[in-house]
Amino acid sequence: LSRLDTLVFLMGVSNVGRIAQRLMEHGGTPETPAAMIQMAFWRDETVVTGTLGTIAALVTQAGIRPPATLVVGEVVRLHEKLKQSRHNLRRHPGSGSRFEPAPAPDQLLRLATAGLGSQVLRFALAISLFERLEDWTPALDLARLLSLNPAGLGEILECLVALGLLESGPQGYRNLELASRYLREGSPWNLKPALLCQAAAGGWEALSQYALNGQPSETTPAGDEQLHRDSCQCLARYAAPAVVDKLPLSGRGSLLLIGWGEQAYRDAIAQRHPELEFDARNPFLGAQLPEQERTYGVVLLSGLLASCGGGQVEEMLKAAASRLADGGILALHDTFLPAGCLPPPEVVLGALGRRLDRGGCRNWSIGRLHDALAALGFNSIHSTPLPAGSRLVTASRS
């Protein structure tokens, strides 16, 4: 295989080091171009380019996860040229390209009305609409039950159908199972508090003022503090099982959680690692961290970016690192911006909304976090994508 001009390996992430080494053993040079491609042509596409001699380390550093495709050969050098060609398509809407690097007109119109769409969703969640639509229900019956105008409610229901959150039929309206599982109280996957917080964030006046002076609102809206706390707990609860599943906790002895999601992490750890000693402190609710003399095998920071102000993330990282035992793991679950690809819009817009209403730190990228951890002596850092646009980052000192 090493004598062929172009090689493509499907599902090559786990074996990239072995593949590169074997190719070099059989005649391939360390300078041969190589690339690993994840989620090609999707919004969160990631492409890592290097050579046979460097590609394994670059893939690990970028946190590439399966499925991904390894390409080896001179064809990799076309990557930058093709990237420029795709960029140029933005200036030629009549080019007939299959791909749309820039939004189409209907996407722009949808984006312009997204604010109203979020308010429709916010209204539906506030009146517990989805809890009442497990079975087919006529709009008139629903209006009577909720003491609402039948015509107004009917139009709102049609908007929810258009948003893909309800289905309509001759018998009325009903939940779509895959959507309502995230919208109903009592559901194990309930995201209702986080959605309400996101939909309430920001506004035209707040956005214009932020653009003028770069400062958020001087006052926190009434009731926003509890909404913010509920949102942070909700997102931590949603992510906790995935975080615990991916963390190497066996044999670590003890774990300290700093931040949100105490009960969710306690339950997930008790199910997967009942031998692990668990301690939790949330400084954003006034709790004090343990004394520095007490150390842990794992220190997990959960949801800092939503609650930290400027400069506080670095302080929290330093405080967490000081509670870490020798050979321990520092882990972070948060909405850090990924390297080398466009972040999900909900991550960027959510961060902007929080700053408009609450201030706090600006977006943190994986690169910035990597530098901050390296300054604290961590030299083995890995990033893993998680549901809802968040990421799990682990760091250790070798």
Identify the notable features of this structure and list them briefly.
398 residues, alpha/beta, 12 strands
Written overview of the protein:
This protein is α/β, with parallel strands linked by helices and 398 residues long. The protein is built from 15 helices and twelve strands. Helix 9 packs across helix 11 and helix 11 runs parallel beside helix 12. The longest helix has 23 residues. The chain is globular. The protein starts with 5 loop residues before the first strand and ends with a strand. 31% of the residues are buried.
Instruction: Classify the secondary structure makeup into a structural class.
Output: alpha/beta
Instruction: Quickly count the helices.
Output: 15
Q: CA-to-CA gap between the ends?
A: 36 Å
What's the helical proportion of residues?
40-55%
Residue runs with pLDDT of under 50 for 5 or more positions: 89-100
Estimate the global geometry from the Cα principal axes: globular
Please tally the β strands and state the result: 12
Strand content: 15-25%
Largest sheet: 6 strands, mixed
* Mean pLDDT across every amino acid position: 85
Query: Whole-number radius of gyration?
Result: 24 Å
Biggest sheet, spatial arrangement of strands: 8-7-9-10-12-11
Instruction: Note the run of SSEs as H and E.
Output: EHEEHEHHHHHEEHHHHEHEEHEHHEE
Quick recap:
The chain is of the alpha/beta class and 398 residues long.
